[in-house]
Specification:
By secondary structure, the protein is of the alpha+beta class. It has six helices and eight strands. Strands 1, 2, 3, 4, 5, 6, 7 and 8 form an eight-stranded antiparallel beta sheet that branches. The longest helix is centred in the first third of the chain and has 8 residues. 34% of the residues are buried.
């Protein structure tokens, strides 16, 4: 899927259809369920599964902008509210296995300095917070609307740390499935 041409001209791209994790389970193989349903750090799991491959976060884009309507609903934001948006590719030996998009309401950033993450993992920072709360996981079979590479599953959840909240969406790519010999779904 190609980028929405209006994404960078003020209008958010189309919404995705998300559903509760349990509703996606019947369509998901046990191998994918083990990846999609886990509540621990995806960065740590990818590094482990990479068997010595070099892990790297590649920053695709970081900016202020309007979230997609489904993202705004997930965060409880008005549709016209601006947020911090960050898109990255999680790569092993330079090959993207997962693409991710994070959305944080500007009013809740409160000095978190997320713009300084650069090519470091947001998950690595989040999972070091002792009071971190992760909301329910939702899933989609739609590809990432911000990246052209296809994949079988996407997942998202809201992470809260004190008064800070961020929506993290992760889309598993076909390259990961090929490398790990996972089923198509």
């Amino acid at each position: 899927m190609t980028r929405n041409p209006t994404a960078h001209h003020g209008k958010p791209p189309l919404s995705l259809a998300w559903r509760p994790l349990a509703a996606g389970r019947p369509a998901m193989s046990p191998a994918w369920w083990a990846w999609v349903a886990t509540r621990d750090s995806l960065t740590a799991r990818l590094t482990e599964a990479g068997n010595g491959r070099t892990f790297r976060v590649r920053l695709l884009e970081q900016r202020l902008g309007r979230p997609r309507p489904d993202e705004a609903r997930a965060m409880g934001l008005p549709l016209d509210r601006m947020a911090w948006l960050r898109e990255v590719a999680l790569c092993l030996d330079g090959r993207p296995w997962v693409v991710a998009r994070s959305v944080a309401p500007l009013a809740q950033l409160r000095g978190q300095r997320l713009e300084r993450l650069g090519e470091r993992s947001l998950g690595s920072w989040l999972f070091r917070q002792p009071d971190l709360e992760r909301g329910p996981i939702e899933v989609t079979a739609a590809p990432a609307p911000f990246h052209p590479l296809p994949g079988p599953w996407g997942r998202r959840s809201v992470f809260r740390h004190r008064r800070f909240a961020v929506l993290v969406q992760e889309f598993f790519l076909d390259a990961m499935a090929d490398e790990l010999q996972l089923p198509t779904r």
